[in-house]
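Quick illustration, no need to memorize.
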Amino acid sequence: MKRLTLILLSLMILLAACGPAPAPTPVPNALFVDPKTSLGPISPYLFGTNYGPMHAVALEVMPLVESGGFTAFRFPGGAWTDEVDMKPFQIDQLIAFAGQAGAMPTISVRLLDGLPETAADLVRYTNLEKKYGVEYWSIGNEPSIYTQLGQATYDYTTENLNRDWRAIAEAMKAVDPTIKLMGPEIHQWNDSLETTPKDSAGRDYMIEFLKANGDLLDVVTVHRYPMHSPSNGPVTVQQLRENTRKWAGEIAYLRSVMREILGKELPIAITELNSDPSSAQLQEVSPDTFYNAIWYADVLGQLMDADVFMVNQWVLSQRSTGLGLFQGTAVRPSYYVFPLYKNFGSEQVYAASGVADVDIFAAKREDGALTLMVINLLDVEQSLPLQVEGLELTEAEVWRLDATHNAENLGTQAISDGSVTLPAQSATLFIIH
């Protein structure tokens, strides 16, 4: 566990220092990759999800959880965090479950009506008594809407958040100074001061939180469900397609706020992410649909480009909405994004697309293979030139997620005349050995 801690610390320093990758210069009407231009390490924790007592996984799909490539589990996830005091046996269950999946656990303690001594006891049990070595901890879930959702019966402002969070954080750090604190876990981050969450007095939750508690913070966390529009009708494919272009701006704005308030940048985690937070399902592009999976595959690539430290999809399993990767024993399409990226590399290299709504992300693996993730967001098949600097492409191992393949290995395929064919609405992984 000590070795893991050193690795994680080194990774955080690297990610915080290097900042987002430079914007690639596209080759018109082609896909281009330069394997010799390294953009630095890819955080392994981009491929996380949320899991908790309200999100039990059916025994029948446990093999898929174990082989899915999940790298981080946020626990207990959602509003439950602030409704119940977590018990030690639940932490035991988390550690066992995360171990089965090979994922790093992160734990959220109660903020609303939570007691500093209760949070401190959880840290003591987890890391001192049981020696589980859980490094990343957060406090509360979406305090920016406690009042709006009726969780708080009074006006829960930035002042309440800053005071309550700090008292709990200091108690936790007093027990184990080595833990890393994440926050503030606010809802619906966006790309400007005009669009980010405010309290009833108009104070910005993120800005005020960083002013008050930035000295205790290790990772800045936000939630994002960009398609939540209850009054505007069902989401469309075109809206999801256009949304993939907005993530870079939202991350850049968050970094600018950190620089202004803290004088530095901290690692960023999006600890809840899906297209729509509502109970929508069985619609054209609700979270349970195939196109949501293609959107999510592209969003992960965008966040990779932005050097985000951690992403937790919402949610691993849920029976009552379209949000779960699993609904009982049923497997939702977005699950297959994870095993697809499981085969992706760990060192990002330069890649650019000169074709609108076709994106490419590239990385080297430890075994020396070059991996290319190509997302066709369009509704029609694309046949495009693929140029890899210094290589004459003749063949590649192909994995595909599309309407007829669930992240399936299609074997080694020839690349004719340096061009690749991308099915409509697809994510294709090319592995070049």
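DSSP finds ten helices and 19 strands in the chain.
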